[in-house]
Design a protein that fits this description.
single chain; 3-stranded parallel beta sheet; 9 helices; alpha/beta; 9 strands; 255 residues; 13% strand
């Protein structure tokens, strides 16, 4: 019995240690200075000519849809929906399966969406060595460049976990970091109505919405999200359009 109690205590201590480590990692990420699109726009000098896409978020009620993950089969259906609503978006792609779907990656780019870097294998960048961080980002950037002819200038750290070290490496690689203001937590539910509700409840002007197309309930939720937000007067823009006339600065964190 004493042995059993000891094992239970050890299991509890181990679980608490894991939880503490996770809380510390999140606290470190949240302690970094983050820049809001509205703030950087207001501080920027007026840009020359018309804003990209013809939408000026200093005047329009803008919101950025962003999608994370591999460019798998559901992405084509998602792109059809975005085209129907003329909704420009930003896709943060994992690199490991980009080579299996070059046509999808090319379509994202040719239809006016923005491509961002989401690492090669989706590790927690705060928990891997410097060289692994560089390799994860460089491999994905090169894969996107080889298909589209353009290297991403934006990256999203997996799980939003970043710190001063990741920011420094991102700056060296010419990548700005993009977090989010709204998440539907679609990785933990297949309930399309719940995903839709979470997005709509959190949506606000200059917001950045995070979704994952490969989860079963997500793409079916997109029509309702697009319809409701369009009715509320939102213009859908890429992250770079949301920042204009400012430009994303390497190493900085935007949310």
């Amino acid at each position: 019995m004493n042995i059993l109690k000891a094992r239970i205590r050890l299991a509890i201590f181990a679980a608490l240690a894991v939880m503490t480590a996770a809380v510390v990692a999140i606290a470190v990420a949240s302690s970094l200075e983050t820049l809001s699109p509205r703030a950087v726009r207001n501080q920027a000098a007026a840009g020359p000519g018309k804003p990209p896409g013809g939408i000026d978020c200093r005047k329009a009620k803008c919101i950025a849809l962003t999608f994370d993950g591999n460019p798998g089969k559901p992405t084509d259906a998602l792109l059809d929906l975005l085209a129907r609503y003329r909704a420009s978006s930003t896709f943060f792609l994992e690199g490991r399966k980009i080579g299996e779907h070059p046509d999808v990656v090319r379509r994202i780019a040719t239809e006016g969406h923005e491509l961002g870097n989401h690492t090669w294998t989706h590790p927690r960048l705060t928990e891997v060595p410097d060289e692994r961080v560089r390799d994860e980002l460089n491999r994905t950037g090169q894969a996107i460049l080889s298909i589209t002819g353009k290297k991403p200038l934006l990256m999203r750290p997996p799980e939003g976990r970043t710190d001063d070290r990741v920011s420094r490496i991102s700056r060296e690689l010419g990548l700005a970091q993009v977090l989010w203001t709204v998440t539907a937590k679609d990785y933990e539910t297949t309930d399309t109505a719940l995903i839709t509700k979470r997005v709509l409840d959190g949506a606000d002007r200059d917001g950045i919405i995070l979704l994952h197309p490969l989860h079963r309930g997500t793409v079916p939720a997109v029509p309702g999200i697009l319809k409701k937000l369009t009715a509320q007067g939102y213009s859908f823009v890429t992250v770079s359009q949301l920042l204009y006339p400012a430009a994303a600065r390497p190493g900085k964190v935007y949310r």
